[in-house]
Amino acid sequence: MANPSFKDCIAKNIKSCTFKVSPSKTADGSEPFFELSAFSEVARHAANIDKVSRELNVDADLIISIMYMETTHGYYDAPLSLFGTNKSILPMNVNVAYWGDVFGTRKDLQKPYENIRAGGMILQRIISNLPVGASVSQIATLYNNINASTVSDYGARVQRIYETKPWLKKENVDNNPLTGQGGTVRNRRY
Questions:
Q1: C-alpha distances out from residue 156 to 32, 113, 129, Å
Q2: What is the pLDDT of residues 136-174, one digit of tens each?
């Protein structure tokens, strides 16, 4: 019997597949000029991200990093979404042209919770087929291309996003309004 395709491993939730993604010396994780942080949908979907993370036991920061990447890079597809003809649906950019109805119908995936849950399920299934301790760059590379064998620029960028957490809001909590002098800086999650 032939080994299942990597797509089948994810679609059918086969946990005995072995994904291998080699490191890359050339993958570029730097922020491209077209990354628009203002388009991030992380804050808007914070409650759903946390809920899906708990339900699926998938690192919330991993889900956030993928969503941040997809929404700050995937805005080019917005006009097609108005007509329901885009091949993938934000905020997790679940590719319905590729996955079909495996993770929900197009109508289902237009609901933020369902979309985030679908993305979380894909991540969960990828992780279950990678060696323990796989890097964020390896996981993200497969999220973007399930047949990849080497870390891609996409994977490297998501790794950098995961490490730098650009969605965090910095607050100056004891700013003196008269002098502009501040002291304590606190990070807020969203």
A1: 12, 26, 20
A2: 999 999 999 999 999 999 999 999 999 999 998 765 555
- 112 neighbors 91 (Cβ within 8 angstroms): yes
* Structure tokens, 7: 């797509």
* 3-class DSSP string for 74-112: HHHHHHHHHCCCCCEECCCCEEHHHHCCCCCCHHHHCCH
For residue 112, whether the previous peptide bond is cis, meaning omega lies within 30 degrees of 0, is no
Give the pLDDT score at 18: 93
Residue identified by tokens 């849950």 is: 117
**Other Cβ atoms closer than 10 A to 12:** 13
Domains of the chain: 29-188 (1.10.530)
How far apart, in whole angstroms, are the C-alpha atoms of residue 24 and residue 135? 12
Give the amino acid at 176: N
The pTM assigned to this predicted structure is 0.87
Neighbour tally for 166: CB within 10 Å: 15
Distance in angstroms between the alpha carbons of the first and the last residue of the chain: 48
For 1, the 3-state DSSP assignment is coil
